[in-house]
Design a protein that fits this description.
The protein is an alpha+beta fold. It is built from 9 helices and 15 strands.
Length: about 270
């Protein structure tokens, strides 16, 4: 049995993203930013690596027995995938491509998963001046700027896709995943469509500004912090195929009321 409560773990996650902000924001739009390419041809910067080191040091000082899985440095246990026990899951800079271009929509994501299920999430977007955090059974909140006021998050009450504003991120992702016709069906039925990327549209679902956000081609560290925040706001999170998992390669977050309708529309195209 762990001596730590979810309140304790959530407090630590919030400290971790606050420490990360001190590093990431200083490197945002830096003229000497070092950029390399990973084997999957996605960019990585010296900021990504420095932020992950800071988070690992923060977590390790308080939870030395916990496993850590980060985008840039892998896992302490050398195991990839859902695992038993406590595991912190880190995306040091979600939205690196935008970070490189000087766009402010990027953030640090820190989650705690227990037996493979994310139960704590903290996300900070320092260039937007926003943070979001939540934990299973505790709820979700946001803060803005330097304010200490914690605003409870609550999803919308839209009950049909025809009345919903939805975000799908990238057409190419849906096409590559065999969901081109599904995307057309979903966006054709929706009231309004947006192509917002990375963590931000999921936080807008938690805030009630969007009714759905979803996309294929994701990694667990892209999603783990999102799930407890969306669910803590009264929403629902799954894969595009309806699996209640961040290990299935896709994400769908809704206000819950339209989730099943979206799932019916988002199925892979028939061959």
């Amino acid at each position: 049995m762990t001596p730590f409560t979810l309140q304790d773990d959530l407090a630590l996650a919030r400290v971790a993203v606050a420490n990360a902000d001190l590093v990431s924001l200083a490197r945002f739009r830096a003229q000497d930013l070092v950029v390399t390419t990973k084997p999957d041809r996605t960019p990585v910067t010296d900021a990504d690596q420095a932020v992950e080191r800071v988070i690992r040091a923060t977590l390790g000082a308080s939870r030395p027995e916990d496993d850590v899985f980060g985008e840039e440095m892998g896992t302490d246990s050398n195991t990839i995938g859902s695992r038993p026990g406590r595991q912190w899951i880190i995306d040091p800079i979600d939205g690196t491509a935008g970070f490189l271009r000087g766009l402010p929509i990027w953030g640090t994501l820190v989650a705690l998963a227990i037996d493979g299920v994310p139960v704590v999430g903290a996300i900070s977007a320092p260039a937007l001046g926003k943070r979001w955090f939540g934990a299973t059974g505790l709820g979700s909140w946001s803060t803005t700027g330097g304010s200490r006021e914690e605003v409870p998050l609550q999803v919308s009450e839209v009950r049909a896709v025809a009345d919903a504003t939805v975000s799908y991120n990238s057409i190419g992702q849906w096409v590559a995943d065999g969901r081109q016709e599904s995307l057309l069906a979903l966006t054709g039925r929706a009231w309004r469509t947006r192509a917002l990327g990375d963590f931000w549209p999921y936080m807008l679902v938690a805030e009630g500004s969007l009714d759905m956000a979803g996309e294929p081609d994701l990694q667990p560290y892209d999603m783990a912090a999102i799930q407890p925040i969306v669910e803590g706001a009264g929403g629902r999170f799954s894969s595009l195929d309806g699996e209640n998992s961040v290990w299935s390669g896709s994400a769908l977050a809704t206000n819950g009321l339209i989730h099943d309708e979206v799932l019916s529309l988002a199925k892979r195209d028939q061959a």
